[in-house]
Design goal:
The chain is an alpha/beta fold and about 180 residues long. Helices cover about 40% and strands about 15% of the residues. The chain contains seven helices and seven strands.
Length: about 180
């Protein structure tokens, strides 16, 4: 059975094809790998925002039916804790009107986003990693995911309330959403 290799901050993860496929649909895997290949060779739209790392548009990528993901709808970034006034203005100039913070409660308390309370940009905290962070803080690394793919599968399994809230925010927003 083929596998998909994914680069992550922890190294290279291997996702068995049977996690991607439903009932062994090899055509679906080939289509998925074609889209992934296109994503890897496409130039990503990066933005420059003062004191914010890794900020990029998730639009402009091909999807299975030949369409493209919508540009300036979802933007991904690293933490906004060190965001300056100039950076806040740059976010507004990009068109961002909603920020979703997916970090754990511990992370948001330790380093709160500098966008909170900024006029015209709604802030929403939806902690997705609290189970993992709380287990690690207690020294219980037996419950820590072995790979990034295992972590994402666990998030889908264990964070249904958070995912519902996340999609509710997506549905309510009509502008550009930045999440991190």
């Amino acid at each position: 059975m083929p596998s998909l290799f994914c680069l992550s901050s922890a190294g290279i993860d291997v996702i068995p094809a049977n996690l991607i496929l439903l009932k062994g649909d090899m055509a679906r895997l080939k289509a998925f790998l074609g889209v992934l290949n296109a994503m890897l060779i496409m130039k990503c739209d990066l933005y420059t925002v003062e004191n914010v790392q890794n900020i990029r548009d998730l639009g402009g990528y091909p999807v299975a039916d030949g369409q493209m993901t919508v540009k300036k709808r979802f933007i991904r970034s690293a933490s906004l804790a060190d965001l300056t006034e100039t950076g806040r203005e740059q976010l507004r100039d990009i068109g961002i009107d909603c920020v979703i913070d997916l970090r754990s409660v511990y992370e948001t308390e330790k380093s709160p986003d500098s966008i909170i309370g900024y006029p015209g940009i709604h802030y929403e905290s939806i902690p997705m990693l609290d189970n993992i962070v709380s287990n690690s803080a207690q020294g219980d690394f037996t419950k820590y995911p072995a790979s990034m793919s295992e972590m994402y599968i666990g998030l889908l399994r264990d964070s249904t309330d958070e995912i519902k809230k996340l999609f509710g925010v997506f549905a309510a927003s009509h502008g550009t959403i930045l999440f991190h």
